[in-house]
Amino acid sequence: MARRDRTRPRHGRLTVRVLFDTHALLRALHQPTALSRTAQEVIGSAENLVCVSLVPLWECAIKSSIGKLDLPADFFEAIPKAGYGVLQIESPHITADLGLPMHRRGPCDRLLVAQAQTSGLVLGTRDPQIAKYDVRTLLA
């Protein structure tokens, strides 16, 4: 059963370590008002750690190169400017991916779940299928 993140304010502020999926990342950088109110609060607080995996960056690059996604010219430069950390893909992430049930067949989604699990991060997503995994999520 999936664990939903029940982030509670601590002295009026949130303390969250979040990993955004591709759609959440695109919204956060270029349409932040399209994010949920909680996700907007998370990215708006300097106390929170917002991470971006290489997975959605790679996915965006592929989709852009085949004409399925129109990326803003400053897309990749906007990530460090927004203060987001970049999470590398490491062997423990791949090993964790091997043990995941096949709720999703897409390699990007599965690897993001594995990264969130092994790195102790909340996965920011709107994908209802992700809730089938044992990973904390934040509605993005």
Per-chain topology:
Blueprint: E1 17-20, H1 22-30, H2 37-44, E2 49-53, H3 54-65, H4 75-81, E3 85-87, H5 91-98, H6 107-119, E4 122-125, E5 137-139
Parallel strand pairs: 1-2, 1-4, 2-3, 4-5
Describe, in plain words, how this protein is organized in 3D.
The protein is of the alpha/beta class. 41% of the residues lie in helices and 14% in strands. It has 6 helices and 5 strands; from the N terminus they run βααβααβααββ. Strands 3-2-1-4-5 form a 5-stranded parallel beta sheet, sandwiched between helices. The chain is globular. The protein starts with 16 loop residues before the first strand and ends with a strand.
Neighbour order of strands in the largest sheet = 3-2-1-4-5
For the biggest sheet, the summary is: 5 strands, parallel
Content of β-strand: 5-15%
Specify the number of helices: 6
What is the structural class? alpha/beta
- Uncertain runs: 1-11
Multimer state: single chain
3D shape: globular
H and E string: EHHEHHEHHEE
End-to-end separation = 20 Å
**Mean pLDDT over the full residue set:** 90
Work out the radius of gyration: 14 Å
How many strands appear in the DSSP assignment? Answer: 5
Portion in helices? 40-55%
Brief digest:
This protein is of the alpha/beta class and 140 residues long. The chain contains 6 helices and 5 strands; from the N terminus they run E-H-H-E-H-H-E-H-H-E-E.
List keywords for this structure.
140 residues, alpha/beta, five-stranded parallel beta sheet, 6 helices, 14% strand, disordered N terminus
